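Structural prep section.
Before we set up the soaks we want a predicted structure of the protein with magnesium ion in place, mainly to decide which crystallisation condition to try first. Input record follows.
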Amino acid sequence: MSTTIPGDQTAARPTALAARATDLTKVYGAGETRVLALDGVTVGFGQAEFTAIMGPSGSGKSTLMHCLAGLDSISAGSARIGDTELTSLKEKQLTQLRRDKIGFIFQAFNLLPTLNALENITLPMDIAGRKPDQAWLDHVVETVGLSGRLKHRPTELSGGQQQRVAVARALAGKPAIVFADEPTGNLDSRAGAEVLGFLRNSVSEMGQTVVMVTHDPVAAGYADRVVFLADGRTVDEMYGPTAETVLDRMKAFDTKGRVS
Ligand SMILES: Nc1ncnc2c1ncn2[C@@H]1O[C@H](COP(=O)(O)OP(=O)(O)O)[C@@H](O)[C@H]1O
Ligand SMILES: [Mg+2]
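Run finished without errors. Recording the tokens verbatim:
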């Protein structure tokens, strides 16, 4: 075990943590089908910080985000959003926390085809019976560059525009943290760059906290920090990443046979 805890060096980084996992373990199945998806992960995500999570397929990236977002139960350890321990919450409280504190962006845009862009963006708040903060909503819509597209349905939008709707939906409720699982995985590089630029702005200009899983060193280069996972453990981290330094680090893993 390493003695330093990635993302937990509070002396070096005085920011409060928006989310943290401590010795987080996640087991799927039992017996012969048992999978240890997370093997004691300890990691923190600072407020107003943009973190990329990288690692080979099956290393536990999605599981970590699902556990921290309260979308999946944990087997042992702790998962906290702010100061709230998720394991202490009853189902109803967990649903409320997910709704009020967490934004999630998936690789598949997951928009409702019968709703227009604006209706998709405000859907979570409509379901919750919350009135959107109109000034904030306008700001989000304008920043993602969707002002002229709000009446369009998803089928009338490009992939990049659809993902920007999904990003706006995640941000509209002012969540404490946004989790994005390969948000540019279905986009060409130009549309991907737009979405990444917007996520970057949401952190730099709006103080949003973003945690993003990606395979792509270029995407990771937009982040403030990269956390590397392998076999359900954090194995490395990097501050101030660039596409080049991330690529170099991935090559170093390759030679050790740790990253496919
Ligand atoms: N619902 C599930 N049931 C059983 N095993 C799962 C489930 N979800 C993920 N796993 C397994 O857990 C491990 C980590 O998966 P995942 O977090 O999806 O990896 P990544 O996102 O890094 O590709 C993999 O071995 C995967 O097969
Ligand atoms: Mg995944």
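Observations: The mean pLDDT is 91.
Flagged for discussion at group meeting.
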